[in-house]
Every structure is written in structure tokens, then in C-alpha cells.
Amino acid sequence: MWFATQGGVSRFDGYRFVNFGIAEGLPFIDVETILEDRQGRIWAGTLEGGVAVLEKGEWTIKKSYRGFADQAFVKLFEGHDGHIFCYPDTGISIITDKAVRYLTTKDGLSNDSVTCHWVDKDGKILIGTYSGLDLIQKGQNSSYHIKTLLSDVTVMCLIRDLHGMLWIGTWGDGIFRYDGNTFVNYSGHEDSPIKKVSCLYIDHKGNLWAGLMESGIARLENDRFIMNTDPVISQASIMDIVEDRHNTIWAQSWGEGVFMIRQNQVRKITTSNNLPDIF
Questions:
Q1: Which of the 8 DSSP states describes residue 83?
Q2: Which parts of the chain register pLDDT below 50?
Q3: Which single residue of 110, 123, 241, 250 could bond 80 by disulfide (Cβ 3.0 to 4.6 Å)?
Q4: Cα–chain-centroid distance for residue 245?
Q5: What are the respective helix, strand and coil percentages of the chain, to the nearest 5?
Q6: pLDDT for res 192
Q7: Is 81 left (phi over 0), alpha (psi -120 to 50) or beta?
Q8: pTM more than 0.85
Q9: CA 94 to CA 38: how far, in whole Å?
């Protein structure tokens, strides 16, 4: 198991940790994201040192003519073609075996500030930016074509449900559903509006959950998002949602600890329950 930390990269083999820092070849000590590709290589996106890859026991720093090594990369993902995609606030960088390529607004991106991504089974890549939702498809001669599907919204998160519907969480415009042709907006009701969405999650039953800023958590029921009105969580800012093997929903918050949701009952876990930090 691999970990990205502020002190480098750590590997746990089930018995002990092996740590990798600048002395072992990393370009910067603060690692924001980590990825293992289909070839078994480990990629590390750092805060100020660009991207490095661990292959055959050695770290290699990826460089290009555009100051690539000085950028902060917060997300990495692998395309179906084996290329590594990474993004900071200057568009998308694509690392191939031969070079580093770029996609920016000059190539059709709705905004160079990229927030999220989703890779479909057919290889299509959906990209959320501060200005919309973009579709990236690979054309002939290894070129990429970009089409903006939804504009004038800040997209924060993307997820596809079990029925193939794409759900788009935005900052200020609620949630959109996209069936490949039409967008439908879900912004709640006047008494419980859904505006700022920070995360989306599909549980084992196919239920869609939405984490909201300063509004807690909501779940899609009968084509409506129902807010959890429990005062324990109703005004929290939910940053991430996961489900454990016992089908319990866990919601990570900003500054209020972790919430556990089981059978519609909400429990708040903080430092008083031995949680080391509430952020």
C-alpha cells in the first residue's frame, strides 16, 4: 500500500513502512497525490516539484520546456492509452513515454483551472473546470479533441451511476444530471436549497449521496435530493463520503470531525473520541 504525505512517499508491505524523500530521488518533500499505473509504476505529484515516477527502484523527475517541474499537481490519472494526465491551475499535462504534452484553453478547455475528472469505460475523459464540463476524446495521430458540454458553471465533482447517468456537482448551481443528450438541474427547494456541492458518492445499493458546503449531506430519493435534517450534521461542510464493509456511511467534514451514518442515525466523531484532528 502506498501513501502520499507531507513527508514524502511511504510504502507499507504489511509489516513495515519504507519511506521515500528527497534523498531517495523525490523532487519535493510534500506529495499531494499518488498513482500506480497499469505497468506497476508509481507516480507522485508534488506541491512544488512537479511529477516523479518510480520505476525499477529509481525515481525519475519528469521535465519539459514549460517549467513543468515547478508546478503543483494535485490530481493524477491514467488514460486508456496509458498516458498519465495531471492537472494544476495551468491546464492539463499529459505525460507520454516520449514527451509532456499540454491541453489549455487554447486547445478548447473551458478553463485552465481544472477541478475534477471522470474516465469512462470507452476511454472518453470528462473534465470539470471553473467554467464548465469538457469532454476529451482521442482522435487520429494521437491528437485530443475537446468539446464543452456544459458552460458557465464551476464543476467540483463528477460521478456516473449504475444506470449510466453522469452526475455533476457544482459550486453554486446545485447538481446536474446528464444522460448524454440533456442536462437536468437539481437545486433542491426553497426551504432546503442545494447550491455548493463538494463531493458525490454512490453506495453499494446505487444510492447517490451529495456532500454540501455548510448544508450537510443529501441523498437522492425518488428523483429528489432529500437533505439530512439532523442538527448534528445539517450545517456541516462535507468534503468526502465513503461506505465501509458494514454499509455504514462515513462523511469527512471541514473542521467538525467525521460523521457516521447508520440506519438514518448520525453520530459525530471528534477529538473527544480520540480522532487526532477535526480537519
A1: P
A2: none
A3: 123
A4: 22
A5: 5, 50, 45
A6: 62
A7: alpha
A8: yes
A9: 16
The widest CA-to-CA distance across the chain, in whole angstroms, is: 58
pLDDT in tens, 151-208: 999 999 999 999 999 999 999 999 999 999 999 999 866 656 789 999 999 999 999 9
Measure the CA–CA gap between 51 and 37, rounded to whole angstroms: 14
CA atoms within 13 A on the CB side of 68: 19
Alpha-carbon distances, residue 13 vs 2, 31, 42 (angstroms): 9, 20, 15
Q: What percent of the chain has pLDDT above 70?
A: 92
Residue 181, phi-psi category: left (phi > 0), alpha (psi -120 to 50), beta (remainder): alpha
Distance separating alpha carbons of residues 8 and 21, to the nearest angstrom: 5
Q: Looking up cell 437545486, which residue turns up? A: 187
196: number of Cβ within 10 Å:
19
Nearest-5° Cα angle at 48, 16 to 241: 60
What is the model's pLDDT at position 49? 80
